[in-house]
């Protein structure tokens, strides 16, 4: 089976099992932006909203944005 045939068959099977009402296309409410840009947007809009909750730890969008910026700055300094 050629790759094109395989992909066509795969897509047809995905359509058959997709739950009713589930969109078939991705919707980007903020546009196609990077993950750091997405976090920065929410850090401004809802800084104290939980971005990550894992076990007993909650990281807000403000904290996550700060961590992302620190890592980016560190990466820039070692490059």
Précis, in short:
The protein is mainly α and 79 residues long. Helix content is 56%, strand content 11%. A two-stranded antiparallel sheet has the order 1-2.
Structural Rg? 19 Å
| Tally of helical segments | 3
Q: What's the helical proportion of residues?
A: 55-70%
Strand content: 5-15%
Query: What's the number of extended β-strand segments?
Result: 2
Explain this structure to me?
The protein has helices at 3-17, 35-45, 61-78, and strands at residues 50-54, 57-60. It has 79 residues and is mainly alpha-helical. The chain has one domain. A hairpin with a 2-residue loop joins strand 1 (50-54) and strand 2 (57-60). The longest helix is centred in the last third of the chain and has 18 residues, at 61-78. The relative contact order is 0.09.
Throw out a few tags for this protein.
single chain; two-stranded antiparallel ribbon; 79 residues; mainly alpha
Please give the structural blueprint.
Elements: H1 3-17, H2 35-45, E1 50-54, E2 57-60, H3 61-78
Antiparallel strand pairs: 1-2
